Amino acid sequence: MSTMEKLPLAIDHIPDSKHAVYDAEPILSARDLVITFGRVIGLDGVNLDLYRGEVLAVIGDNGAGKSTLIKCLTGAYQQDSGEVYLDGQPVSFKRPQDARENGIETVYQQLAVIPALDIASNLYLAREERRPGPLGSVLRMLDKKGMKQRAGDAVQKLGIQTIQNMGQAVETLSGGQRQAVAVARAAAFGSKVVVLDEPTAALGVKESGMVLDMVKQLRDSGLAIILISHNMPHVWEVADRIHIQRLGGCAGVITPQSHDMGEGVAVMTGAKTLPS
Amino acid sequence: MLSSTSAAAAEFARRRQSPVQRIQNQLHGHPWLSPLFLLVITFVIFSILNPRFASPNAQSLLLQQVAVVACLAIGQTLIILTAGIDLSVGAITILAMMIMASLAANNGVPGWLAILIGIGLAVAGGFLNGFLVTRVGLPPFIVTLGTLSIFTAVALLYSGGSSIQNNRLPAIINWTGETFKIGKFNITVGVIMVLLLYCIVGFALTQTAWGRHIFAVGDDIESARLSGVASKRILLSVYTVAGLIYGFAAWIQIGRAGSATANGIPDANLDSITAVVIGGTSLFGGRGGLIGSLLGALIVGSFTLGLSLAGVDQQWRLFAIGVLVIVAVSVDQWIRKVKA
């Protein structure tokens, strides 16, 4: 029904395993996004397509518009002009809660997990489930055992292995495990798109590896993932396509196979331009 | 590769913990264990100093004496759990008390209505605190420091500094002071009321989403907000519910003291905070619980009663409470450093 044209993929050759991903319609699209802050141009007519089952990395120098772009897609900002489409339908998010209700979840850089509570409580924070019957509806009693059970199931289904005991307090978890909790929370509730904002920024080598493995597992399970990162090796390891922001506009979309890290950085800083 | 690290971690988890580490872990999971332990020791020591301390009469007196502070501590616990503090607790209670008593005695308002209005005023006071904290964005310490003076002044202006004796009050207002016997103990209606409030608020704190959100907001308000918790609404509700609790405390205080005076509960502010802190709730928010505050109130009350029964100068009570507070906060710091 959508008359919107898919953007060119920038992938020379789609491997057989990926045909299903890229033949489908994009789950999230943006066309001609423009946003200004007074005299400063935040976004200068940016286009984007995001497919289920892929990891789209968004890279760019500070001030290039990465965060601005993401905030427009997740409802934290409202663009001045341009359209955002979710599953082919035009959408207009007034606040992050709207985007969340439509299946777009964000994992912020500071993680937003509560150390004093346990893993299951964190997973269900702000969407707690009550016991069935009058205990739940009248007394508003929480279904703690049920939530713990379902949290464990969800984590297992996502293939996350670094967190095992749903009753463990988050404050006892390592940085990578907390990241796993934050990501599990974003991915476990039927979300369509998960945005990861610098997920490995505060992590060491081993833990970053675990988080990147988790991202790959999520991608393989059919989620659409946007990854914002300054860490080029991590981006090149996990991304399917790489959207490069520069000076408010899209400088191009490349893949880890088509260009190496050095070329990616060169495009990012303007030392190199891509043929459009 | 992953299996060898998880094996090493499993080995660490199975390690034989020293008794101290085991205690530390238990305390971390159940913060009310240390005040319980402290209460038992207090009971034993004061019973040795004067065997009358352990008698049903003395213990009944203890319960009656701590009822009001224990009640105030409910509201104070909720507020401290959100990393806030309420310095106006005594002032709101006194204001509610004077309004309740005055309306009934001087204006002929029926007892039940006077109680309702008094409690309603206390709710409004709590709401004002919450409003200033959430909408105007002022720190709770500053807000309640200001409202402490405001409410105290209003209470003094309204009552003119006079007190109202219970013989001028309708039965229902004095009802909280009525005693009845359970075995050898003399229990007042007020004590029962406080225990009921502990059960109700304790249930809400541990079994509902509201309770969880209180802990979340106290532990890390920004993370809570990003996770979708209505942080401002939670804070506002906490201060307002605290006001409601203070209203009940006012009713209980009239029954217990047999009169309504503007200086009936001089140490209420500090005593309520002390009870909460000794009870294991952290002033930094997010950790603790209601049971601890009840135990804390009992400990403070035990010191008061125990020292007087042992013939010790009341000044030592102040000294002992001060030491208790420092010990309690130190234990809290130590507990926070636990390794799972």
Can you describe what's shown?
- The complex is a heterodimer of chains A (276) and B (340).
- Chain A is of the alpha/beta class and 276 residues long.
- Chain A has a domain at 38-112 and 174-269: P-loop containing nucleotide triphosphate hydrolases (Rossmann fold), CATH 3.40.50.300.
- Chain A has helices spanning 19-23, 66-74, 96-101, 119-123, 134-137, 144-157, 175-187, 205-220, 232-238, 261-269, and strands at 28-37, 40-50, 55-60, 81-86, 89-91, 104-107, 193-197, 224-228, 241-246, 249-254.
- In chain A, the strands form two sheets. Chain A has a six-stranded mixed sheet, sandwiched between helices. A four-stranded antiparallel sheet of chain A has the order 2-1-4-5, with helices on one face.
- In chain A, helix 7 (175-187) runs parallel beside helix 8.
- In chain A, 45% of the residues are buried.
- The mean pLDDT of chain A is 88.
- Chain B is mostly helical and 340 residues long.
- Chain B has a single domain, classed as ABC transporter involved in vitamin B12 uptake, BtuC (Orthogonal Bundle).
- Helices cover 73% and strands 4% of the residues of chain B.
- Chain B has helices at 2-13, 19-29, 33-49, 56-81, 89-106, 111-134, 140-159, 171-174, 189-207, 209-219, 221-226, 231-257, 268-278, 290-309, 314-336, and strands spanning 164-165, 179-182, 185-188, 259-260.
- In chain B, the strands form two sheets. Chain B has a two-stranded antiparallel ribbon with strand order 1-4.
- In chain B, a hairpin with a 2-residue loop joins strand 2 and strand 3 (185-188).
- The longest helix of chain B has 27 residues, at 231-257.
- Chain B starts with a helix and ends with a helix.
- The relative contact order of chain B is 0.19.
- The A-B interface holds A 97, 100, 108, 110-117, 121-122, 125-128, 130, 139-142, 161, 168-169, 172, 185, 206 and B 2, 5, 203, 207-210, 212-213, 215-216, 218-220, 222-224, 226-229, 286-287, 338-340.
